[in-house]
């Protein structure tokens, strides 16, 4: 059994709620920062599943809606710091898009506290660990997010 698996299975008493977090990250900064966190053996919550994309500008807000629909309790969106995007302005587009998207999320009943938007560079492995831990702790406090899934199931059943 790997060390990571052993830590995961020993960390929590059985039956305790462990949030499932989907992280949409850009390839050039945050993914590399997350990789650095791993190779540096920085300890963090094991609840995050990373989806790597070329740039935060490529992250369609529907990815987030779908993640919640398919069982995520929280979502992280993270990319290069402003001014550092490898495609010049992808993260500026993402920042503008998500400012509007947050309001839409509230409108459809998704608590904004379930979403973390951050900038993590390739050299910020420690920061990635902090973003993960803060998000997992916040979402753990909010509890399982089933209301949106239930709404989608009801809608699909009635269709
Ligand atoms: Fe990282 Fe655009 S390449 S945000």
Characterization of the model:
The protein is an alpha/beta fold and 159 residues long. The chain has a single domain (18-158), classed as 3-Layer(aba) Sandwich (Rossmann fold). Helix content is 48%, strand content 14%. It has six helices and four strands. The chain has helices spanning 3-11, 30-39, 61-69, 90-107, 125-142, 147-158, and strands at residues 21-26, 48-53, 74-79, 115-119. A four-stranded parallel β-sheet has the order 2-1-3-4, with helices on both faces. Helix 4 (90-107) links the parallel strand 3 (74-79) and strand 4. The protein is globular, with a radius of gyration of 16 Å. The chain starts with a helix and ends with a helix. Bound molecules: FE2/S2 (inorganic) cluster. FE2/S2 (inorganic) cluster (FES) binds next to helix 4. FE2/S2 (inorganic) cluster binds at residues 26, 28-29, 55-57, 79-80, 85-87, 90-91.
Number of helices: 6
Described by strand count, sense and barrel closure, the largest sheet is: 4 strands, parallel
Count of individual beta strands: 4
Q: CATH first level: which class?
A: Alpha Beta
Helix- and strand-based class? Answer: alpha/beta
Distance between the termini: 45 Å
Which range best describes the helical content: under 10%, 10-25%, 25-40%, 40-55%, 55-70% or over 70%? 40-55%
Order of helices and strands: HEHEHEHEHH
Strand ordering within the main sheet: 2-1-3-4
Query: Which consecutive residue ranges, at least 5 long each, have pLDDT under 50?
Result: 1-11
Number of domains: 1
Shape: globular
Average per-residue pLDDT, rounded, comes to 87
């Amino acid at each position: 059994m790997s060390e990571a698996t052993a830590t995961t299975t020993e960390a929590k008493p059985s039956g305790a709620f462990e949030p499932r977090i989907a992280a949409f990250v850009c390839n050039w900064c945050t993914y590399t920062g997350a990789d650095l966190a791993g190779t540096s053996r920085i300890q963090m919550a094991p609840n995050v599943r990373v989806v790597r994309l070329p740039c935060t500008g490529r992250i369609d807000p529907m990815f987030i809606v779908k993640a919640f629909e398919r069982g995520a309790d929280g979502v992280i969106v993270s990319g290069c710091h402003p001014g550092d995007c490898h495609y010049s302005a992808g993260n500026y587009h993402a920042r503008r898009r998500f400012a509007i998207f947050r309001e839409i999320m509230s409108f459809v009943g998704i608590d904004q506290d379930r979403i973390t938007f951050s900038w993590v560079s390739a050299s910020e492995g420690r920061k990635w660990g902090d973003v993960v831990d803060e998000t997992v702790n916040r979402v753990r406090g909010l509890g399982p997010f089933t209301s949106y899934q239930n709404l989608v199931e009801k809608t699909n059943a009635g269709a």
